[in-house]
Amino acid sequence: REPYDILYARLSQEDEREGESNSIQNQRMILEQYASEKGFTNPYFLYDDGFSGTNFNRPGWNSAMRLIESGMVRTLIVKDLSRLGREYLEVGKLTELVFPSYGVRFIAINDNVDSFYGENDFVPFKNLFNEYEQISAPKEHRNSSGSLDVHRLTSAKQTLTKIRIVSAEST
Q1: Considering only CA atoms, which of 122, 131, 132 is closest in space to residue 161?
Q2: pTM of the predicted model, to two decimals?
Q3: Is 101 buried (19+), middle (13-18) or exposed (0-12) by CB count in 10 A?
Q4: Among residues 130, 57, 133, 136, which one has the least CA distance to residue 88?
């Protein structure tokens, strides 16, 4: 049997408030288009809707891990690293130890991560930022009414992108 190319999407309740760009349907469209364009021949879509990225006990994710552990997965593709999770140590363990030990290629489309091409030195920083975003949202990224302040989050992401560009130019 041909191994699966898992297309994985996750949406938390906080993400849902940010709008359509992170919706499960939008993630699925991005993942399926990418898989089709890049020639992945056995896509299998799994998702978790309403689960925090700090919680790795998610039904869709548990199904993906069962398939990975049984040797039935060739590739795991996500829209971006934060869809995999927002817990620095767990995401690092998965991307640096678990996936390679099972021969699983990992791709995070919007973060330009593809384990086929080797390690990406920026991934640990992105994972830290994703965790920081989750932890700090209750304090620094909320407005006076207690709602998530998308403008503050966008500003923080733009700063991180600038750091990435400067880092790339200095190497």
Answers
A1: 122
A2: 0.70
A3: exposed
A4: 130
